[in-house]
Design brief:
The complex is a heterodimer of chains A (281) and B (507). Chain A is α/β, with parallel strands linked by helices. Chain A has 8 helices and 10 strands. Chain A folds into 2 domains: 209 residues, von Willebrand factor, type A domain (Rossmann fold), CATH 3.40.50.410; 44 residues, no CATH class. In chain A, helix 1 packs parallel to helix 3. The radius of gyration of chain A is 23 Å and the shape is elongated. Chain B starts with a helix and ends in a 6-residue tail after the last helix. The radius of gyration of chain B is 33 Å and the shape is flat. In chain B, 29% of the residues lie in helices and 27% in strands. In chain B, strands 4-3-2-5-7 form a 5-stranded mixed beta sheet. In chain B, strands 17-16-18-19-20 form a 5-stranded parallel beta sheet. Among the domains of chain B are: 85 residues, no CATH class; 129 residues, no CATH class; 100 residues, no CATH class. The chains are: A alpha/beta (281), B alpha/beta (507). The interface between A and B is medium-sized, with 37 and 25 residues.
């Protein structure tokens, strides 16, 4: 549990108490029930003769009384819409803090599983680097912790490519993207998922450069160096670009997505709650 | 240069401190460039070297500090190689008045004796002797090291009789120098050379001297004469040279001079007359020409040579414009000629080609002589002048009966003088001084209108009294190049700031 924020269990417990589990909004899978998997829902899939491998508890005893032969009822699998959790592990995350970024992502992934949502956890940089499927969710932290174990940060950021890869290989129609979004090629409005939830990890450059007058800034992804007089113009330019990025995420949020910002070192409990509410909205 | 090297570290110390502070406040950070907008610092600023972009202000400050280090020593008075309290200089006045009096007691002789005795007793220490004399070749006053001029002075022996040596040195100086008039401002050169003490040995300066020591030996005795007027007298039909004289009068000899060949010829008594007047003699010449008047005596060795060039009584003129043509016909001494030396023209009419011109502007109505005080803030400001015109004549001026007199005076002032008094010595050939030549004791100035006699100022003939004090301060160093350099550096710093920050003004 060390990688998870300590308030996560309380958040999951409170959320489950407040929000009863609802049926999924839209069914996934094929329309022909024949091709749907059997499960534990109340939707009857078929009635067939009993075979020795079946569970005796599923024998329809009334039908056995009328017909004299054992039959079992099969029900359709309970179909819930999962969530893809994509975690940015490119080198630029280091400006926010690699460990703290992992803590945020792990907390979100565990929370989603803890409230029973199937989750597909992806780590990516310029390509997917690790994947964990939890089709039934679950409150166990071990899979999440093992997922982040030894997961470093490296490489460039390519959010669009990884979103496309996740969408192609997952049935989930919702995605939670945890990233710093410092990828000029990514357009938050062009996500392939039906609903996207953007969690921005914002490392404050002004806090890093406080008290300094001249900076040699090395880009962790490209390795390029930039000699930057940290004056009023540089500060204004940084703030303007930061506002542009926030505005782009906000614009996407108005189109059905959701966005939130996590400041390095700041309290995140409220953001987790808002994210869960947005997913269940 | 040494002072600059001493100053430079002191002035560069704050710059180094700033650089050190800048290094202290400089860090290497790892952060994505996407939000830092490095493009904002490109564009025109990319022309600057990359390392300069962050250090331009330090570099500019260092350049300014170096410029200041170089400028400060050069802006202080120049001490020269001998230093501010360096050696002393004894300067011998070699003007014409130093030759007044009997040989042996002339101011020049007395000054040389003083000089030699001072050198012999060591009263002046290691004083270096100079002669301040007029150089006709350069047409300016200059300083000559006395030892170079006089072999006798150079080879003098300590303890030798000063009077005997002074005579020989004086002869050598008279043979080599032109005793004329002096510009004492040339003494400032000694200050620039580093002489801390300057003593001038002269006869009578007639005014207070600042910055130098002055030894006045007394104005030499003897007769004095100087021309108070030299012009054509229309009443008598002769060319007149009126002399102002003091002291006993001697003989007057008149010669005709051919300036081309430099040959003097005796003037027959029939061609000139001498009138004795209480203030001085008046010489009347029957014809225009170049004359030399030699005043001799009454004692041997006394006298002076005066030269005059009298122009013809008539003036060849050309006129254009109705007013100027009428005026040209009013004065009988104005002759219409093709090759005119004087052009009379109305403003707005073509001006005839001539060496001198008089332009009159005929105005339709009278104007005020002064601007309205309401416009000039109460100060008297002349008004009504027509630009480019010597006369601005309205109806009232044209009706004035004395207009012809004013016009005559204007024409007379344009005439060629009979001699040139040397008003500003030392202004040098670039200041418009003509080439000089020497005919015996006569100096001729060769201008565009031919040779003209050059006379020393009256102070060489009569003892000068009063006048502005002579101030020999070290020449002020030229500060504007340094000011210009510092301004350029400051402008470069501001420009770099504007280029790099894309701001128009730092304020």
């Amino acid at each position: 549990m060390s990688l998870l924020d300590p308030e996560c269990p309380a958040i999951a417990k409170a959320f489950l108490r407040r929000t009863p589990r609802r049926p999924p909004e839209a069914r996934g899978g094929g329309k022909d029930p024949v091709f749907r998997r059997a499960g534990s829902s109340f939707d009857l899939k078929c009635i067939r003769e009993y075979c020795p491998s079946d569970d005796p508890r599923r024998i329809d005893w009334k039908l056995l009384g009328r017909c004299g032969r054992p039959y079992v009822k099969e029900f359709l699998e309970e179909d819930r819409d999962g969530v893809c959790v994509l975690v940015d592990r490119s080198a630029s995350i280091g400006s926010f803090g690699a460990e703290e970024a992992a803590r945020v992502a792990a907390s979100i992934a565990w929370l989603l599983g803890a409230i029973g949502l199937p989750t597909s956890l992806w780590a990516f940089s310029d390509r997917p680097v690790r994947r964990l499927e939890r089709p039934r969710g679950g409150g166990s932290a071990a899979p999440v912790l093992s997922f982040f174990s030894g997961l470093g940060i490296s490489g460039r950021t390519d959010i669009s490519a990884c979103l496309a890869a996740a969408r192609a290989s997952s049935r989930a129609r919702r995605a939670v993207l945890v990233s710093d979004f410092l990828d000029p090629r990514f357009d938050p409005r062009a996500s392939p998922f039906a609903r996207s939830f953007y969690v921005r990890l914002r490392g404050d450059f002004e806090a890093l450069a406080a008290g300094l007058s001249e900076l040699r800034v090395v880009d962790p992804e490209s390795g390029r160096s930039l000699l930057l007089p940290w004056d009023a113009l540089a500060r204004e330019s940084y703030r303007a670009r930061d506002r542009e990025l926030s505005a782009a995420l906000g614009e996407a949020a108005r189109r059905g997505s959701w966005s939130g910002t996590v400041e390095s070192g700041a309290d995140r409990a409220s953001l987790y709650w808002e994210l869960l509410e947005a997913i269940y909205a | 240069m040494l002072e600059s090297l001493e100053l430079a570290p002191l002035l560069l110390a704050p710059v180094a401190a700033l650089l050190f502070l800048s290094f202290l406040r400089s860090r290497k950070l790892s952060y994505p460039h996407e939000l830092l907008d490095p493009e904002a610092r490109r564009g025109r600023a990319s022309l600057l070297p990359r390392s300069f972009r962050g250090r331009y202000d330090i570099l500019a400050d260092a350049a300014i500090a170096l410029a200041l280090a170089l400028a400060l020593p050069s802006s202080t008075p120049v001490a020269g190689p001998r230093g501010a309290g360096g050696g002393s200089a004894l300067v011998l006045d070699c003007s014409l008045s130093m030759l007044r009096g009997e040989p042996g007691s002339r101011p020049l002789d007395l000054a040389l004796e003083r000089l030699l005795s001072a050198a012999a007793t060591g009263a002046e220490g290691e004083a270096e002797a100079f002669a301040l004399a007029f150089d006709p070749g350069l047409a300016r006053t200059r300083l000559y090291p006395l030892a170079e001029l006089s072999p006798s002075y150079a080879s003098r022996r300590p303890g030798a009789k000063a009077a005997a040596g002074a005579g020989r040195i004086a002869e050598e100086l008279e043979a080599r120098l032109c005793f004329f008039a002096l510009d004492y401002r040339a003494l400032a050169e000694l200050g620039r050379r580093g002489f801390g003490s300057i003593v001038l040995l002269t006869d009578s300066l007639g005014r207070r001297a600042e910055g130098i020591g002055l030894v006045e030996l007394g104005f030499g005795p003897g007769p004095s004469a100087y021309p108070s007027a030299a012009r054509y007298d229309r009443a008598s039909g002769a060319w007149v040279a009126a002399l102002a004289e003091a002291g006993p009068r001697g003989e007057v000899l008149a010669f005709s001079l051919d300036p081309a060949s430099g040959r003097l010829s005796d003037l027959p008594p029939s061609r000139y007359a001498i009138e004795e007047r209480p203030a001085g003699r008046i010489l009347r010449f029957a014809e225009a020409g170049f004359y030399v008047v030699a005043l001799r005596g009454p004692e041997p060795g006394q006298g002076a040579d005066l030269a005059f060039r009298f122009s013809p009584a008539t003036i060849a003129c050309a006129a254009s414009g109705p007013f100027s043509e009428r005026m040209a016909s009013v004065f009988p001494f104005l002759e219409r000629a093709g090759a005119a030396s004087l052009a009379l023209a109305d403003l707005g009419y073509p001006r005839p080609r001539a060496a001198r011109s008089l332009v009159s502007a005929i105005l339709p109505e009278d104007g005020g002589l002064l601007l309205d005080p309401a416009l000039s803030g109460g100060r008297p400001v002349a008004a009504g002048l027509a630009p480019g015109a010597d006369f601005a004549l309205g109806p009232s001026s044209l009706a004035n009966e004395d207009l012809a007199l004013a016009y005559y005076n204007a024409i007379a002032s344009l005439g060629r003088p009979a001699f040139l008094a040397w008003p500003e010595l030392g202004s040098g050939p670039r200041g418009g001084v003509p080439r000089l030549s020497r005919l015996g004791s006569i100096l001729l100035a060769h201008g565009p209108e031919g040779p003209e006699p050059l006379l020393p100022p009256a102070a060489e003939s009569f003892e000068p009294r009063g006048g502005p004090p002579l101030s020999i301060a070290p020449a002020a160093p030229r500060r504007w190049p340094w000011a210009l350099l510092l301004a350029a550096l400051a402008a470069a710093k501001l420009s770099a700031w504007a280029l790099l920050s894309r701001r128009r003004s730092p304020i």
